[in-house]
Specification:
The complex is a heterodimer of chains A (94) and B (447). With 94 residues, chain A is mostly helical. Chain A has four helices and no strands. In chain A, helix 1 (2-24) runs antiparallel to helix 2. Chain A is globular, with a radius of gyration of 13 Å. Chain B contains 18 helices and 14 strands. In chain B, the strands form three sheets. Chain B has a six-stranded parallel β-sheet, sandwiched between helices. Chain B has a six-stranded parallel β-sheet with strand order 7-10-11-12-13-14, with helices on both faces. In chain B, strand 11, helix 11 and strand 12 (281-289) form a beta-alpha-beta unit. The termini of chain B are far apart. The chains are: A mainly alpha (94), B alpha/beta (447). The A-B interface holds A 24-27, 30, 35, 38-50, 52-54, 57, 62, 65-66, 69 and B 32-33, 35-37, 39-40, 179-180, 226-227, 229, 255-257, 280, 282-283, 320, 323, 325, 355-356, 422-423, 425-426, 429-430, 432-434, 437, 447.
Chain lengths: 94, 447
C-alpha cells in the first residue's frame, strides 16, 4: 500500500509542477522543487490564486490560501497539495 | 586614439528609492504583498543593453548594474558611459568623479541628461541627451579619433526609427540572475500628463518596433533567463490597437508571461481582454492617478483622465474578470486633493479589489510641465535629486502641512496592504478563476 501511496504522491507532485508551469508559462523542466515561487517565478496574489484554483479543480480539494502564504518553494507547495490529497484519501470522500 | 579598439564600461548607478524614508522602507520590507510587486520595479532595465547594441562591434563593451554588481574603478576603460534617472543622478555624479579622477572619459546619458544637459555637463566629459541610437555610434567614432564633443543631442538627428533598431544586448547582463526583465516596444504617449516627462523625452509621435523585432527580443531574453517574466516598459503599450492585436497573436504562440503599462481604455474591449489573457498577460499597470474626479482636473490637456474617471470601476472589473490584474498607479498631492485623499484612495483600491496599487507623492520631475508650473508658484522645496523618489515630499501643498503628504502615503499603504484586504483580494481572485474555469452555462458557486 505504501508503494501505491508513493506513486500517487509522485503523480500529484508532477501535476502540481505542470499546473505551475502552465500558469507561469515556463518550461516544466524549469519548475523544480527548489524554485522560489515569489523570488523566481514572481507569482503575485492573482496568479497564486490561479494556481490554487487549478489545483483545487484538478484534485477536488479546498485549499486555504492562508496556508499558502508561508510556502516559499515549488517543493513546499507540492508537499502541501500532496498532504491535502493524502488526508482526503485517509478520511474518504465527504 | 585612432583605430584603437575601445574598452567601454556602461553603468547603471545604484538607486535608492527609499532615500530618507526609513519608516516607509521598514514597512515595505515587512509586507510580503508589496515585496512581490516590487520585484517588477526592480527588474532588469534594457537601456544600456540598447546602447551596447548600437556600439560598433569592434569595441569591447561591459555592463555593470550597480544594484547587482560592483564597479571596478581601477580597470583601464577608455570610456565610461553612465545612465541615470533623476533619483539616481547624484550617484551617477559620484561614479563620474571617480573615473574622471583616474583620467577616464566619462559620458552621461539617460532621462536626466536629456532634460538637464547643462547641469550634467558639469560632471561629464560628454553629455548624451535624448535617444542614443543615432548619436552614440558617431560619438564613439569621434572619441576614437580624439574629437569627441561635450554634447551629443538626439534631437539633432530627429526621432529614432524604432523599427530599424537592433535587438538590445541582453547577453551582456546574463551574469545577473533576474526574475523580471524590462523590454521596450514603443516610445511616446498621447496623454502628455502634466507630471510626466515622457513627451519631452520621446516627443509626441508614437513610434513602434515591429512585431518581429519584439518577438526576437522576447526570445533572446527567454534564452538567457528561462523563468523570467517580461514587463514591457512602454509608457502606454496599446495605443495602436491594430499593432497591439498583432502583437498579442504573436505572443500567444510564444510561451512566456508578461505585464505592461497602458491606459484604462482597454477595459472597454472584451475581445481584446480575452486575447490579452490568452497571450500570457499577467497584469497591466494603469495610471489611474486619483480616486477623485476633481483631482484629475487639469492632469492632461484633453482632460482625458477626468472624463474616464466615471468608467474606472467598470473597466477595472472587466479587466480583472478576464484574469488580468490591475495594478493601479495613484498620486497623492494633486492640486484638488485634501485630507480625504486617504479614505478615498483606500476605499477605491479595496472596493475594486485591485491586484495592487502604487501610490506616490506628486513630484515635479525635471522635464515635466508640472515642474515649470511649480517653479513659477514657488512650491518646490528642494532640488536635491536624491529626494525625488516619489515617496518623499518635495513640494508645498495648500491643503497639507509639511510632512502630511508622507503621513497620508503611509496611511494609504497600511489601508491597502493588510490581512483583511489581502483576504478579500484572494477571495475575489479565487472567484474570478473559478468563473473562468467553469464552462459557459454553469455558474461557479461562491467559495
Amino acid at each position: 500500500m505504501e508503494g501505491a501511496a508513493d506513486g500517487a504522491d509522485e503523480r500529484i507532485r508532477g501535476r502540481v509542477r505542470s499546473i505551475v508551469a502552465d500558469v507561469a508559462r515556463v518550461d516544466i523542466a524549469e519548475v523544480v522543487d527548489s524554485v522560489s515561487i515569489r523570488e523566481e517565478l514572481v507569482l503575485d496574489s492573482l496568479l497564486a490564486m490561479r494556481v490554487i484554483a487549478a489545483c483545487e479543480r484538478e484534485f477536488g480539494l479546498r485549499i486555504d490560501e492562508r496556508q499558502v502564504a508561508d510556502v516559499q518553494t515549488i517543493g513546499q507547495f507540492a508537499d502541501l497539495v500532496a498532504s491535502h490529497c493524502a488526508r482526503r484519501r485517509d478520511v474518504g470522500p465527504p | 586614439m585612432r583605430s584603437k579598439q575601445l574598452r567601454i564600461l556602461l553603468v547603471s548607478p545604484r538607486d535608492d528609492f527609499f532615500y530618507g524614508a526609513g519608516a516607509f522602507r521598514e514597512y515595505i520590507e515587512k509586507s510580503r504583498d508589496i515585496q512581490t510587486i516590487l520585484k517588477y520595479w526592480r527588474g532588469m532595465g534594457s537601456g544600456l543593453q540598447t546602447v551596447a547594441s548600437v556600439t560598433p562591434p569592434d569595441h569591447q563593451v561591459e555592463i555593470v548594474n550597480e544594484n547587482r554588481g560592483e564597479i571596478d574603478f581601477d580597470a583601464p576603460y577608455d570610456l565610461v558611459g553612465v545612465t541615470a534617472m533623476t533619483q539616481q543622478v547624484t550617484r551617477a555624479y559620484e561614479i563620474a568623479a571617480e573615473f574622471r579622477r583616474r583620467g577616464r572619459h566619462v559620458a552621461i546619458g539617460g532621462i536626466h541628461a536629456t532634460v538637464m544637459p547643462d547641469e550634467v555637463a558639469h560632471h561629464a566629459d560628454t553629455v548624451v541627451a535624448g535617444e542614443a541610437e543615432e548619436v552614440w555610434p558617431g560619438f564613439i567614432r569621434d572619441l576614437r579619433e580624439g574629437t569627441a564633443r561635450p554634447l551629443y543631442s538626439g534631437e539633432e538627428l530627429g526621432p529614432v526609427n524604432l523599427a530599424a533598431t537592433p535587438t538590445p544586448r541582453h547577453d551582456l547582463v546574463a551574469k545577473y540572475r533576474v526574475p523580471v526583465v524590462w523590454v521596450q516596444t514603443t516610445r511616446g504617449c498621447p496623454h502628455d500628463c502634466e507630471f510626466c516627462a515622457a513627451t519631452r523625452v520621446y516627443g509626441r509621435r508614437y513610434r513602434c518596433k515591429s512585431v518581429e523585432q519584439v518577438i526576437a527580443e522576447v526570445r533572446h531574453v527567454r534564452s538567457i533567463w528561462k523563468t523570467a517574466t517580461i514587463t514591457f516598459a512602454d509608457d502606454n503599450m496599446f495605443v495602436n490597437l491594430k499593432r497591439s492585436r498583432a502583437l498579442l497573436e504573436a505572443f500567444s504562440r510564444e510561451r512566456f508571461s508578461w505585464s505592461a503599462i497602458c491606459d484604462i481604455s482597454i477595459g472597454r474591449d472584451d475581445a481584446f481582454l480575452r486575447d490579452l489573457r490568452a497571450s500570457g498577460c499577467r497584469f497591466v499597470f494603469v495610471g489611474l492617478e486619483s480616486a477623485s474626479r476633481d483631482s484629475l482636473r487639469g492632469v492632461d490637456p484633453a482632460s482625458w483622465k477626468e472624463r474616464m474617471h466615471g468608467h474606472y470601476s467598470e473597466y477595472v472589473r472587466r479587466i480583472q474578470e478576464n484574469g488580468i490584474g490591475v495594478y493601479g498607479g495613484f498620486i497623492v498631492g494633486l492640486d484638488g486633493d485634501d485630507s480625504t485623499v486617504v479614505d478615498r484612495t483606500v476605499r477605491f483600491v479595496n472596493d475594486n479589489c485591485l491586484m495592487a496599487a502604487q501610490v506616490t507623492i506628486l513630484t515635479p520631475v525635471p522635464g515635466s510641465r508640472l515642474r515649470q508650473r511649480m517653479q513659477e508658484e514657488k512650491r518646490i522645496v528642494t532640488d536635491d535629486w536624491r529626494w525625488y523618489t516619489g515617496w518623499n515630499e518635495v513640494i508645498r501643498h495648500p491643503a497639507f502641512a509639511p510632512g502630511d503628504l508622507e503621513r497620508c502615503l503611509m496611511e494609504i499603504y497600511q489601508g491597502i496592504y493588510n490581512d483583511d484586504s489581502s483576504r478579500k483580494r484572494s477571495a475575489y481572485f479565487r472567484q474570478v478563476w473559478e468563473n473562468l474555469n467553469t464552462p459557459r452555462g454553469e455558474t461557479a458557486l461562491p467559495g
